[in-house]
Design goal:
The chain is of the alpha/beta class. The protein has one domain: Aldehyde Dehydrogenase, Chain A, domain 1, CATH 3.40.605. It has 6 helices and 9 strands. A 3-stranded mixed sheet has the order 1-5-4, with no helix packed on it. A two-stranded antiparallel ribbon has the order 2-3. The protein has a two-stranded antiparallel sheet with strand order 6-7. β4 and β5 form a beta hairpin. α3 crosses α4 and α4 runs parallel beside α5. The longest helix is centred in the middle third of the chain and has 24 residues. The radius of gyration is 19 Å and the shape is globular.
Length: 197
């Protein structure tokens, strides 16, 4: 691969992981031109195991924060993306080949809205209870599962990523997220945002 191209690495346990010598580097193409504009580190099974272990370690502390604190964190992430709307929109446009206006006016704002909506849901996290037949009681008990995997497709990269990640985080779960290798630019920017927060 070209050493002049940016190398996007896996983000695990609060930091970017350097690829080992045997790492597979995937080219990231701009569909509008066919040009390769970045390289993406393919996570091998050892890195996936590392990510899952990190999520399992982080899960209890994240869940213990409680809904209001998780909501505040999700809102900060939404604010960070919104403040960099143009950067995210250009990355989405470059990755998908869609018009910049669509990314700027629809896709990225929808992702921001997802983080904000699920932030509000973290504050409203409640269970239901209904009388059942006889002396029975039917209830729902909502509690974090721990570490969850979120896989996102290529067609709406950040929007669909946020649609999976935000509710999982709002509910108190730690996340191992896998973006499409075809459209990873906004996932890279999201990882950089997480590191900045």
């Amino acid at each position: 691969m070209n050493a002049d191209l940016p190398l996007w690495r896996s983000y695990i346990d609060g930091g970017f992981v350097a690829p080992d010598r045997a790492a597979t580097l995937l080219p990231v193409h701009q569909p509008a031109t066919g040009a390769i504009y970045a390289q993406l580190q393919q996570a091998e099974s050892a890195q996936v195991d590392q990510a899952v272990a990190a999520a399992r370690r982080a899960g209890p502390d994240w869940a213990a924060l409680g809904g209001p604190a998780r909501a505040q964190w999700l809102r900060r992430l939404a604010d960070h993306i919104e403040a960099r709307l143009e950067i995210f929109a250009e990355a989405e446009c470059r990755d998908t080949g869609k018009p910049l206006r669509l990314a700027r006016e629809v896709d990225i704002p929808r992702a921001v809205a997802n983080f904000r909506f699920f932030a509000s849901q973290a504050e409203l996290f409640a269970s239901e209870c209904h009388s059942g037949a006889g002396a029975g009681l039917n209830y729902s008990l909502r509690q974090p599962l721990g570490a969850v995997a979120c896989i996102s497709p290529w067609n709406l990269p950040l929007y669909l990523f946020s649609w999976k990640i935000a509710p999982a985080l709002a509910a108190g779960n730690a996340v191992v997220a896998k973006p499409s290798e075809v459209t990873p630019a906004t996932a890279q920017l999201l990882a950089e945002a997480l590191q900045a927060l």
